[in-house]
Amino acid sequence: MSDWVLILGASTGHGGATAKRLAKDGYGIIGFHFDRGETKKEAEKTISEVTELSNGRTIYWNTNAAAEDAMEKYIPEIKEITSGEPLKLLLHSIAFGTTTNFFSDKPVTKRQMDMTIHVMGNSLLYWTQKLYDAQLLAAGSRIMGLTSEGNYVAMEGYGPVSVAKVAMEAIIRQIGWELGGSGITANAVQAGVTHTRALTKITEGWEKWIKKTKKRNPLGRTTTPEDIAGTISMLLQPEADFINCSVIYCDGGEHRSGTI
Q1: Burial category of 156 from C-beta neighbours within 10 Å (exposed 0-12, middle 13-18, buried 19 and up)
Q2: Radius of gyration (Cα) for the chain, nearest Å?
Q3: C-alpha–C-alpha distance, residues 222 and 199, integer Å
């Protein structure tokens, strides 16, 4: 087992925070991001911090990680980076998709639905399949994806993303069920409402979401990317070897306290 982790969506939000935390924990970080313009500057800042925390054991690629040709191109390079040893973690943290209603002035199209489901859901399966075939996943490896309560609560503009995340949860369960016998586990981590760039893209009323969340959350605050990073760090410990096919809640009890 290598001490390298692979994070899809590792520049900002939960993925960026997890890259920093795991670099601090001593892991080498292999990250994908897809940033342009102003967001590229934010990504470069994260990469600089991760590089420093990992003592230079950081590889980032700015490309569409959901594209099959990217998987084909970079998996051999990943294998070279780890000297052929399996990855400790594959984390899916890609937050890119269409946020609109099914019925509106501009209802979601088939192309938008297909893209969102692939990028935020199905792409995790294809990465896992290809990494497994390349012997980059083995006993002790973890597969993780990020989800939210929007998967079972209807929200303004969240429909396409909700469908994608539900698909991802099903994929994770099946991966854990099929690969558990090889010692590879798969779990989803459910965050509460978090003030990230992705949240501001979901709805114009994101500030109201945050305000309401602080009132309904038992701990009186919203989730932070660092909360999620800490949870993922814990799930990499040997004591978590028997946690599989599950949704791990890291939201302060928010999912038990009504809806947004």
Answers
A1: middle
A2: 17
A3: 12
pLDDT computed for residue 256 by the predictor: 85
Domain ranges for the chain? 4-256
Model pTM score: 0.94
How far apart (Å, rounded) are the C-alpha atoms in residues 44 and 47? 5
Across the range 107-120, mean pLDDT stands at: 96
Report percent pLDDT > 90 for the chain. Answer: 75
pLDDT of residue 198: 66
Amino acid (1-letter code) at residue 58: T
The single-letter DSSP state of residue 256 is G
What's the residue count for the chain?
260
Nearest in space to 98 (alpha carbons), one of 112, 86, 84: 112
Architecture of 4-256 per CATH? Answer: 3-Layer(aba) Sandwich (3.40)
Encoding tokens for residue 162?
A: 């909700």
Amino acid at site 101: N
Contact indicator for 69, 130 with CB cutoff of 8 Å: no
Pinpoint the alpha helices (H) of the chain. Answer: 13-24, 37-53, 68-81, 110-117, 123-133, 159-179, 197-202, 206-216, 225-235
What pLDDT band is residue 164 in, cutting at 50, 70 and 90? very high
Residues with Cβ within 8 Å of 260's Cβ and at least 6 positions away in sequence, in order, are 153, 155, 193, 209, 212, 213, 216
Identify which of 257, 104, 66, 98 has the alpha carbon closest to the alpha carbon of residue 162: 98
